[in-house]
Structures are given as C-alpha cells and as structure tokens.
Amino acid sequence: MSLLAELDSLGSQPDPRSYVTLIETLSALGRTLEADALFQEVIRSGLHGSYPLRFYNALLGGYLRKGQLELALRVLDHMELENVEKNQETCEILLNYFVGAGRLEESWRVVNEMKKFPLTSFVYGKIIRIYRDNGMWKKALGIVEEISEIGLPMDVEIYNSIIELRIRIVNNFCCRI
Asked: Where are the PPR repeats (predicted)?
C-alpha cells in the first residue's frame, strides 16, 4: 500500500485498470485483506468505470483460493445488490472452488447456471472430475464421448480429467480382483 501512498503524495491516482491489476495481484498473492481494502476504496470512490466485474472476480478468486467461502459469498451478495451479472469467468471461479472442495450440490448448481454460456473445455473437464470423484465413471465417459461428438478441441484440462478418470477405473477394477 506504500505504492498507493507514494502515488497519492505525487498527486497521481491510479486509473480503474491499474486498480484491477493491483487487486488481481494482491488476491493472487493471498493478500486478501489488502485487496479488499483497495476494492472498498474503488467502490466508495466510484472508480470502477467499465470494470466492475473484473474487480469482483479478482476479489472472489482471491477469497476462494484461500478457502474463505464466507467472504466470497459476501462478494457475490454485493454483486447482486449492485446488479452486476456473473459472467463465465465468475462461474468458472466458483466451479473450480466447489469441485476442488468436493461440494457436489454447489458444483451442479454452478454448472446449470453456466448453461447460458457456451460450455468450454474447462467446464467439461470439471464435469468429468465431478462424475469421476463420485464414482460415476460411465457418466464421465459419456461426457468424453459428448466432447468428441461436438468437436470441442481437447486441451490440457480435458486430457488430465480423462487420464485421471482412466486411472481411477483401472485402480477400481484391479482392487476388485
């Protein structure tokens, strides 16, 4: 924050894009208190310009990376209060957290919410992981077939999900013998 104080003493104030970058960086570093303080300053001063969703997503991602679900939910509530619509990135941040935390019900709620956006390889990879982690291997393989049928290019996320799925299937089969 000394950087902001120094800029202020020079009579300069960062533009909204600079604030977004600062909040994203602080959140990525796990310095969520500082990111939140900057976020509050931006909201109070009305500096968010055309970037309000990026501010919210940066803070939301930072909180969820640190496992601070209550604070993340507070960000979502504030978005709703300010009529800031979630975008695909917002949903991907939530989906990544819920799948990683093993929160099946919330994961499916986010997946259903994401159906209004074109589903990406990130989302398909997470769906495969949800099925895989809950022992629904046939459904996971069905998703792999669906990906092939729609012609979605395979990327690292999907390949990793498929590899992990096949390993689980083989391990499960070997354990039964």
From this structure: 15-49, 52-86, 87-121
